[in-house]
């Protein structure tokens, strides 16, 4: 197609492919069918080739969207030999995904990391241009891998150009690619294009074609051939074009039409398969020459082994131009010649089916199993859903729909999962099926957007399922209900109901799932028994990362933030190693939240950033909100007030609409810390008071025990002593029923500050605080301030000095400056702290530094952080000058200084 009016777009793409070494993710070229996306990309490819780039291409086909990793196979096939040098887990996952080796089900993130590593290695030899066309038709697994790669190539000599139809969904929309929207050609340019392809038109015909094409380049080049047919101008342009192509098709001789129909229905474009199936239909041997009239009609191009349709609209127009029975006959013929390819055969048989067909349904079910084994969850969902449609038996139909929904949950397809569960529930289900349907959707946002009456329904369902002798499904349902008690507040009655059901399950008390359920549902009533189990299980950390994740969450609920940090830190490496990026941000968010409460900002900064990144990437909005709120709290503690406010606002937007209480509570905490640091104590008290008001959406039953000291701090300065005493009295009553460490630490601080005395301060400092450095520093600061006000300046200095040193070591800048001011008022000079690595590095860079200091190689760091090892090397090259070091060995001293 001639390129008229696309000079600006071509210039932008040429500049992009001219400078990939500078690092650029690439561009997503968008537009309606026929707008010229492929033509523009072809020019970019030509420019890249001239510029010395290697080009790797993949073009998605609608009929292949149910075949997992089909597009990735096409893209990586020319460089597949390089996979032999990949780390074993990546190599195994990639070979399994591409169907080139038998192995366990490949983890999709390992496949993504393998593709990233392979492409990075190739780009190190010669810069790469990756072209992915028609990604709206790409199988979901391949699209996810390309999005994974796109997010991580900003430092690589790689450029990705993808084409996408307007309005179509794709993971690549959220992959950090810049957008290039191709508009219709302006009138004068459209006229120039039409005149170049059809110079002899009469004025009336020319005017009509310009009006009908409306600036669409494909229409301008293809409609002139159908000018005598006077297309209906009322029809949408795409339909007019399809009619034009359909008319060319119907004008062909019958044997050619049959062969061309088979080609349109054959997803691979294989000429051999097309001719074999056409021969089956026609009862005679069909040769490649049979397609010559279709080439002359400009519907297809032929290569020795492949049939190419000149435009996807040409391909779609052909089946629409023949009766349904003719299409079914063609599908049956393709199925017949695909006996050695059971997955493709099953789909062709399904397309040929006229009603329920259990044999084909079983074939599709087997195809789903094979797709799942290759890591193709989206492909498995599609096969199971189609199998359900062909199922005559209602129970089998429901089973297949629920299995498909389970696969959709695993792949993050919320809308698909909800639709499948809804379809399953449309008919009578067995108790087991009802249980499965109920717990399946709990993985999405932990039920935050559901009506709270749902908690009671789930409790009753769990009880009935357990009574039928199915404790594991019952536990899954109960866990889904318990999670709702964290994000929302179902009320005391619902909590009691859940606890009664949990107590009745035939499960050991030490079962981590039961421990976590008890912690979520009854964080105070069961705190003593939960803490006992947690302390006993602490010796087993690292054995099972999912168990550690459960226990980390449970610890957070019962005020044992030190244990929460320990369990969640133990969970993260195992989840990374298993490639479970859906669960990883949950463990990371708990770890970051806990480390901040303990004052370990050096550890919390990179963990919170990574939690936010992976939560966003895996479509977990409330985990993203929680991790972002933790980042806001960190910024507030470091005195970065502008950044804290921006992060708090972003987190609040995520959590407010659905009332995600932990997100909103952490947001208010960050705002209170910022207001206090700025001397706005009335505002700080108003922010933190909300955390103790059951009517406020920021009230979170379990987490409020962590905020007693923070509230006390600002209430005294805001002159809200009586209001504080009321809250402390309420928390004192609560403390009688729970040993929650965070609550008792906070109350000891509140007692000492409300009625200060040496005895109360010494009692608070004498408590077990070895794992709580921030709380110890807070106590020393408050004690020192009180001593100075009592004119005991000499006595105050030791406490103020300890507080300053503690907060400096923890990176709590706002608190450290407060200790400095107090120390100067007590008559001791206190120099300002110089900047350290925390101030010089981004959270991402800090993660890399910490891992490098542990002795990990670039490749090992890349596997941990899901980056290519070359990207890690690039980051370290930039980091060394920032820190004033010249070797990895010196990084140990940098990280050691952060821990002091």
TrEMBL record:
Pfam families on file: AAA_16 (PF13191), GerE (PF00196)
Coiled-coil parts of chain: none
Residues of the HTH luxR-type domain: 834-899
Gene3D superfamilies, alphabetized: Winged helix-like DNA-binding domain superfamily/Winged helix DNA-binding domain (1.10.10.10)
UniProtKB keywords: ATP-binding, Nucleotide-binding
Molecular functions (GO terms): adenylate cyclase activity; ATP binding; DNA binding
One Gene Ontology biological process: regulation of DNA-templated transcription
Record keyword Nucleotide-binding present: yes
PROSITE patterns referenced in this protein's UniProt entry, alphabetically: HTH_LUXR_1, HTH_LUXR_2
SMART domains xrefs: HTH_LUXR (SM00421)
InterPro entries the UniProt entry points to: AAA_16 (IPR041664), P-loop_NTPase (IPR027417), Sig_transdc_resp-reg_C-effctor (IPR016032), TPR-like_helical_dom_sf (IPR011990), Tscrpt_reg_LuxR_C (IPR000792), WH-like_DNA-bd_sf (IPR036388)
Protein known as: Helix-turn-helix transcriptional regulator
Organism per entry: Amycolatopsis azurea DSM 43854
High-level lineage: Bacteria, Bacillati, Actinomycetota, Actinomycetes, Pseudonocardiales
């Amino acid at each position: 197609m001639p390129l008229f009016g696309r000079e600006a777009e071509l210039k932008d793409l040429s500049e992009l492919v001219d400078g990939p070494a500078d690092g650029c993710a690439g561009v997503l070229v968008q537009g309606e069918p026929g707008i010229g996306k492929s033509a523009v990309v072809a020019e970019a490819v030509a420019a890249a080739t001239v510029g010395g780039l290697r080009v790797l291409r993949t073009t998605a086909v609608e009929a292949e969207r149910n075949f997992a990793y089909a597009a990735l196979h096409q893209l990586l096939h020319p460089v597949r030999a390089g996979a032999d040098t990949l780390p074993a887990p990546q190599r195994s996952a990639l070979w399994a995904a591409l169907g080139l080796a038998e192995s366990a089900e490949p983890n999709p993130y390992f496949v993504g990391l393998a593709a990233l590593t392979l492409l990075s290695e190739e780009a190190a030899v010669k810069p790469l241009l990756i072209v992915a066309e028609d990604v709206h038709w790409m199988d979901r697994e391949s699209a996810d891998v390309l999005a994974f790669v796109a997010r991580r190539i900003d430092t690589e000599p790689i450029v990705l150009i993808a084409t996408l139809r307007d309005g179509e969904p794709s993971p690549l929309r959220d992959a950090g690619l810049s957008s290039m929207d191709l508009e219709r050609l302006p009138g004068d340019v459209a006229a120039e294009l039409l005149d170049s392809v059809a110079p002899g038109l009469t004025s009336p015909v020319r005017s009509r074609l310009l009006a009908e094409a409306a600036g669409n380049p494909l229409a301008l080049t293809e409609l002139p051939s159908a000018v005598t047919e006077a297309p209906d101008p009322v029809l949408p342009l795409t339909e007019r074009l399809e009619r034009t192509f359909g008319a060319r098709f119907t004008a062909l001789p019958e044997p050619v039409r049959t062969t061309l129909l088979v080609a349109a229905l054959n997803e691979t474009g294989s000429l051999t398969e097309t001719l074999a199936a056409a021969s089956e239909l026609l009862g005679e041997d069909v040769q490649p020459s049979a397609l010559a009239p279709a080439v002359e009609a400009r519907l297809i191009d032929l290569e020795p082994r492949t049939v190419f349709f000149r435009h996807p609209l040409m391909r779609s127009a052909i089946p629409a131009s023949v009766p349904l029975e003719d299409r079914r006959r063609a599908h049956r013929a393709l199925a017949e010649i695909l006996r050695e390819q059971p997955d493709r055969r099953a789909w062709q048989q399904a397309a040929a089916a006229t009603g329920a067909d259990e044999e084909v349904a079983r074939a599709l079910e087997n195809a789903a199993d094979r797709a799942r084994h290759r890591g193709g969850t989206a492909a498995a969902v599609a096969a199971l859903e189609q199998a359900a449609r062909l199922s005559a038996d209602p129970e089998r139909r429901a089973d297949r729909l629920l299995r498909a929904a389970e696969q959709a949950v695993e792949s993050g397809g919320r809308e698909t999962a909800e639709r499948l569960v809804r379809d399953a529930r449309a008919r009578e289900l067995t108790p087991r099926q009802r249980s499965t349907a109920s717990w399946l959707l709990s993985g999405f946002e932990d039920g935050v957007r559901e009506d709270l009456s749902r908690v009671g329904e789930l409790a009753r369902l769990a009880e009935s399922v357990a009574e039928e002798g199915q404790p594991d499904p019952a536990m899954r349902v109960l866990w889904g209900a318990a999670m709702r008690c964290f994000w929302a507040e179902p009320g005391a009655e619902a909590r009691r109901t859940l606890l009664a059901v949990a107590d009745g399950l035939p499960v050991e008390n030490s079962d981590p799932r039961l421990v976590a359920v008890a912690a979520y549902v009854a964080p105070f009533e069961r705190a003593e028994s939960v803490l006992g189990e947690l302390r006993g299980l602490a010796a087993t950390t690292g054995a099972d990362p999912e168990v550690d994740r459960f226990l980390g969450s449970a610890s957070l609920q019962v005020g044992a933030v030190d244990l929460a940090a320990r369990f969640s830190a133990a969970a993260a490496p195992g989840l990374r190693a298993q490639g479970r990026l859906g669960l990883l941000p949950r463990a990371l968010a708990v770890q970051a939240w806990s480390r901040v409460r303990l004052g370990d900002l050096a550890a919390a900064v990179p963990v919170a950033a990574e939690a936010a990144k992976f939560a966003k990437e895996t479509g977990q909005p409330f985990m993203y909100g929680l991790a972002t709120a933790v980042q806001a709290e960190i910024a507030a503690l470091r005195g970065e007030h502008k950044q804290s406010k921006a992060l708090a606002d972003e987190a609040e937007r995520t959590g407010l609409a659905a009332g995600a209480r932990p997100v909103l509570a952490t947001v208010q905490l960050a705002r209170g810390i910022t207001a206090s640091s700025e001397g706005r104590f009335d505002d700080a008290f108003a922010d933190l008071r909300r955390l103790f008001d059951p009517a406020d959406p920021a009230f979170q039953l379990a987490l409020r025990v962590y905020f007693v000291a923070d509230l006390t701090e600002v209430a005294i300065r805001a002159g809200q002593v009586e209001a504080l005493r009321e809250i402390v009295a309420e928390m004192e009553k609560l403390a009688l029923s729970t040993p929650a460490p965070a609550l008792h630490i906070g109350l000891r601080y509140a007692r000492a500050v409300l009625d200060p005395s040496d005895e109360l301060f010494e009692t608070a400092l004498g408590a077990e605080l070895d794992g709580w450095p921030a709380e110890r520093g807070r106590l020393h600061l408050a004690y020192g301030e009180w001593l100075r006000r009592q004119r005991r300046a000499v006595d105050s200095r030791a406490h103020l000095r300890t507080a300053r040193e503690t907060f400096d070591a923890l990176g709590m800048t706002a608190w450290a400056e407060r200790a400095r001011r107090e120390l100067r008022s007590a008559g001791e000079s206190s120099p300002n702290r110089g900047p350290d690595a925390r101030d010089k590095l981004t959270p991402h860079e800090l993660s890399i530094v910490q891992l490098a200091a542990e002795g990990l190689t670039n490749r090992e760091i890349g596997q941990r952080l899901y980056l290519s090892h070359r990207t890690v090397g690039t980051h370290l090259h930039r980091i060394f000058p920032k820190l004033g070091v010249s070797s990895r060995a010196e990084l140990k001293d940098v990280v050691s200084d952060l821990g002091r």
